[in-house]
Design brief:
The chain is of the alpha/beta class and 198 residues long. The protein is built from six helices and six strands. The chain has a six-stranded mixed beta sheet with strand order 1-2-3-4-5-6, with helices on both faces. Helix 3 packs across helix 6 and helix 4 runs parallel beside helix 5. The chain is elongated, with a radius of gyration of 17 Å.
Protein backbone atom coordinates (compact mmCIF):
# COMPACT_ATOMS: atom_id res chain seq x y z
CA UNK A 1 0.00 0.00 0.00
CA UNK A 2 1.12 3.49 -0.64
CA UNK A 3 -0.01 6.58 1.19
CA UNK A 4 -0.18 8.51 -2.08
CA UNK A 5 -3.39 6.80 -3.20
CA UNK A 6 -6.56 8.71 -2.24
CA UNK A 7 -8.62 7.11 0.47
CA UNK A 8 -6.17 4.26 1.01
CA UNK A 9 -4.45 3.99 4.36
CA UNK A 10 -0.72 3.32 4.36
CA UNK A 11 0.31 -0.06 5.65
CA UNK A 12 3.44 -1.89 6.60
CA UNK A 13 1.77 -5.29 6.30
CA UNK A 14 2.61 -7.64 3.45
CA UNK A 15 0.58 -8.39 0.36
CA UNK A 16 -2.18 -10.86 1.20
CA UNK A 17 -2.32 -14.35 -0.26
CA UNK A 18 -4.81 -14.39 -3.12
CA UNK A 19 -6.94 -16.90 -4.94
CA UNK A 20 -4.41 -19.07 -6.74
CA UNK A 21 -2.34 -18.24 -8.58
CA UNK A 22 -2.70 -14.43 -8.52
CA UNK A 23 -2.15 -12.27 -5.44
CA UNK A 24 -4.75 -9.75 -4.27
CA UNK A 25 -3.23 -6.29 -4.00
CA UNK A 26 -4.25 -3.34 -1.87
CA UNK A 27 -5.25 -1.44 -5.02
CA UNK A 28 -7.58 -4.34 -5.91
CA UNK A 29 -9.14 -4.00 -2.45
CA UNK A 30 -9.71 -0.28 -2.98
CA UNK A 31 -11.27 -0.83 -6.41
CA UNK A 32 -13.46 -3.60 -5.01
CA UNK A 33 -14.70 -1.40 -2.17
CA UNK A 34 -15.62 1.34 -4.64
CA UNK A 35 -17.42 -1.09 -6.97
CA UNK A 36 -19.40 -2.48 -4.05
CA UNK A 37 -20.43 1.01 -2.96
CA UNK A 38 -18.68 0.72 0.39
CA UNK A 39 -16.57 3.83 -0.06
CA UNK A 40 -12.84 4.36 -0.46
CA UNK A 41 -11.54 3.97 3.08
CA UNK A 42 -9.75 0.64 2.94
CA UNK A 43 -7.77 -0.16 6.08
CA UNK A 44 -4.63 -2.30 6.10
CA UNK A 45 -5.14 -6.02 5.78
CA UNK A 46 -5.55 -7.65 9.18
CA UNK A 47 -6.75 -10.82 10.84
CA UNK A 48 -10.27 -10.76 12.28
CA UNK A 49 -11.29 -13.97 14.04
CA UNK A 50 -8.77 -15.94 12.02
CA UNK A 51 -9.83 -14.38 8.71
CA UNK A 52 -7.36 -12.37 6.62
CA UNK A 53 -9.38 -9.42 5.32
CA UNK A 54 -9.24 -5.81 4.26
CA UNK A 55 -11.69 -3.89 6.48
CA UNK A 56 -13.56 -1.10 4.71
CA UNK A 57 -14.43 1.62 7.20
CA UNK A 58 -15.87 5.05 7.81
CA UNK A 59 -13.65 7.33 9.91
CA UNK A 60 -14.80 10.15 12.15
CA UNK A 61 -11.87 12.55 12.15
CA UNK A 62 -13.69 14.68 14.71
CA UNK A 63 -14.00 11.73 17.11
CA UNK A 64 -10.33 10.87 16.59
CA UNK A 65 -9.27 14.45 17.33
CA UNK A 66 -11.39 14.49 20.48
CA UNK A 67 -9.96 11.20 21.72
CA UNK A 68 -6.44 12.45 21.13
CA UNK A 69 -7.16 15.62 23.10
CA UNK A 70 -8.69 13.59 25.93
CA UNK A 71 -5.91 10.97 25.75
CA UNK A 72 -8.39 8.14 25.08
CA UNK A 73 -6.51 5.44 23.12
CA UNK A 74 -8.26 2.41 21.58
CA UNK A 75 -9.97 0.26 24.22
CA UNK A 76 -9.83 -3.53 23.85
CA UNK A 77 -10.99 -4.51 27.34
CA UNK A 78 -14.21 -6.46 26.83
CA UNK A 79 -15.59 -5.57 30.27
CA UNK A 80 -15.12 -1.86 29.65
CA UNK A 81 -16.74 -2.12 26.23
CA UNK A 82 -19.65 -4.06 27.73
CA UNK A 83 -20.22 -1.30 30.27
CA UNK A 84 -20.21 1.24 27.45
CA UNK A 85 -23.31 -0.49 26.06
CA UNK A 86 -25.36 0.59 29.08
CA UNK A 87 -27.42 3.76 28.50
CA UNK A 88 -26.23 5.23 31.81
CA UNK A 89 -22.60 4.86 30.66
CA UNK A 90 -23.02 7.38 27.84
CA UNK A 91 -21.09 10.19 29.61
CA UNK A 92 -17.98 7.97 30.03
CA UNK A 93 -18.14 6.28 26.61
CA UNK A 94 -15.38 7.25 24.19
CA UNK A 95 -16.69 8.48 20.83
CA UNK A 96 -16.59 6.00 17.96
CA UNK A 97 -13.82 6.72 15.49
CA UNK A 98 -14.19 3.69 13.21
CA UNK A 99 -17.37 2.26 11.71
CA UNK A 100 -16.96 -1.08 9.91
CA UNK A 101 -18.80 -1.08 6.57
CA UNK A 102 -17.42 -4.18 4.88
CA UNK A 103 -14.73 -6.83 4.79
CA UNK A 104 -12.94 -8.07 1.67
CA UNK A 105 -11.55 -11.58 1.96
CA UNK A 106 -9.23 -13.65 -0.19
CA UNK A 107 -7.63 -17.08 0.11
CA UNK A 108 -5.99 -19.73 -2.05
CA UNK A 109 -9.37 -21.14 -3.09
CA UNK A 110 -12.80 -19.54 -3.39
CA UNK A 111 -14.16 -22.04 -0.86
CA UNK A 112 -11.64 -20.95 1.76
CA UNK A 113 -12.22 -17.28 0.98
CA UNK A 114 -15.99 -17.73 1.15
CA UNK A 115 -15.69 -19.62 4.44
CA UNK A 116 -13.69 -16.75 5.91
CA UNK A 117 -16.03 -14.07 4.59
CA UNK A 118 -19.01 -15.98 5.98
CA UNK A 119 -17.55 -15.81 9.49
CA UNK A 120 -17.67 -12.02 9.31
CA UNK A 121 -21.25 -11.70 7.97
CA UNK A 122 -22.56 -10.96 11.45
CA UNK A 123 -20.56 -7.72 11.58
CA UNK A 124 -20.79 -6.13 8.14
CA UNK A 125 -21.18 -6.67 4.41
CA UNK A 126 -18.67 -9.16 3.09
CA UNK A 127 -17.18 -10.00 -0.29
CA UNK A 128 -14.57 -12.28 -1.82
CA UNK A 129 -12.03 -11.10 -4.40
CA UNK A 130 -10.68 -13.28 -7.20
CA UNK A 131 -8.18 -12.17 -9.82
CA UNK A 132 -7.91 -15.49 -11.65
CA UNK A 133 -10.61 -17.57 -13.39
CA UNK A 134 -12.99 -19.21 -10.97
CA UNK A 135 -13.05 -22.99 -10.80
CA UNK A 136 -16.64 -24.29 -10.70
CA UNK A 137 -17.93 -20.73 -11.17
CA UNK A 138 -21.64 -21.61 -11.07
CA UNK A 139 -21.25 -23.43 -7.76
CA UNK A 140 -19.19 -20.56 -6.36
CA UNK A 141 -21.76 -17.92 -7.32
CA UNK A 142 -24.62 -20.00 -5.96
CA UNK A 143 -22.83 -20.40 -2.61
CA UNK A 144 -22.12 -16.66 -2.51
CA UNK A 145 -25.75 -15.82 -3.28
CA UNK A 146 -27.05 -18.19 -0.61
CA UNK A 147 -24.76 -16.67 2.01
CA UNK A 148 -25.13 -13.05 0.93
CA UNK A 149 -21.40 -12.75 0.21
CA UNK A 150 -20.31 -10.68 -2.79
CA UNK A 151 -17.87 -11.93 -5.42
CA UNK A 152 -15.55 -9.82 -7.54
CA UNK A 153 -13.36 -11.10 -10.35
CA UNK A 154 -11.19 -9.79 -13.16
CA UNK A 155 -12.76 -10.13 -16.60
CA UNK A 156 -11.03 -10.98 -19.88
CA UNK A 157 -10.10 -7.32 -20.43
CA UNK A 158 -8.38 -7.16 -17.03
CA UNK A 159 -11.08 -5.06 -15.37
CA UNK A 160 -12.29 -5.87 -11.88
CA UNK A 161 -16.07 -6.37 -11.84
CA UNK A 162 -18.80 -7.43 -9.44
CA UNK A 163 -19.88 -10.95 -10.32
CA UNK A 164 -22.26 -11.33 -7.39
CA UNK A 165 -23.45 -8.32 -5.34
CA UNK A 166 -22.85 -8.37 -1.59
CA UNK A 167 -25.70 -8.18 0.90
CA UNK A 168 -25.99 -4.69 2.34
CA UNK A 169 -25.05 -4.62 5.99
CA UNK A 170 -24.70 -7.50 8.38
CA UNK A 171 -26.75 -10.71 8.32
CA UNK A 172 -30.41 -9.90 9.07
CA UNK A 173 -30.36 -12.10 12.20
CA UNK A 174 -27.29 -10.37 13.67
CA UNK A 175 -27.56 -7.43 16.05
CA UNK A 176 -24.89 -4.97 17.14
CA UNK A 177 -23.16 -6.04 20.34
CA UNK A 178 -20.02 -5.48 22.40
CA UNK A 179 -17.93 -7.51 19.95
CA UNK A 180 -18.72 -5.03 17.17
CA UNK A 181 -17.22 -2.18 19.17
CA UNK A 182 -14.21 -4.37 20.04
CA UNK A 183 -13.52 -5.00 16.33
CA UNK A 184 -13.82 -1.31 15.55
CA UNK A 185 -11.48 -0.39 18.39
CA UNK A 186 -9.03 -3.05 17.13
CA UNK A 187 -9.12 -1.54 13.64
CA UNK A 188 -8.69 1.91 15.19
CA UNK A 189 -5.57 0.65 16.98
CA UNK A 190 -4.16 -0.80 13.76
CA UNK A 191 -4.76 2.45 11.90
CA UNK A 192 -2.89 4.37 14.60
CA UNK A 193 0.03 1.91 14.51
CA UNK A 194 0.14 2.16 10.71
CA UNK A 195 0.31 5.95 10.95
CA UNK A 196 -2.91 6.24 8.94
CA UNK A 197 -4.51 8.82 11.23
CA UNK A 198 -2.91 12.23 11.57
Amino acid sequence: MTSGQPGLFPSNVGTPAGLAPTLISSSDAQKAAELLGWGQRVAPRMTLFGVQAYPVVDISERAHDLRERLDQPPVLDHDVLAVWQWPEAAPMRAPEVVKLRGALSSARSWRSALSGASRLRGFCSTAVMATSPLVHEEECLLECKLQGVGMLAVDSSGQLRVVEPARRGRSPQARRRTLDRWIEELIYQELIHAGALA
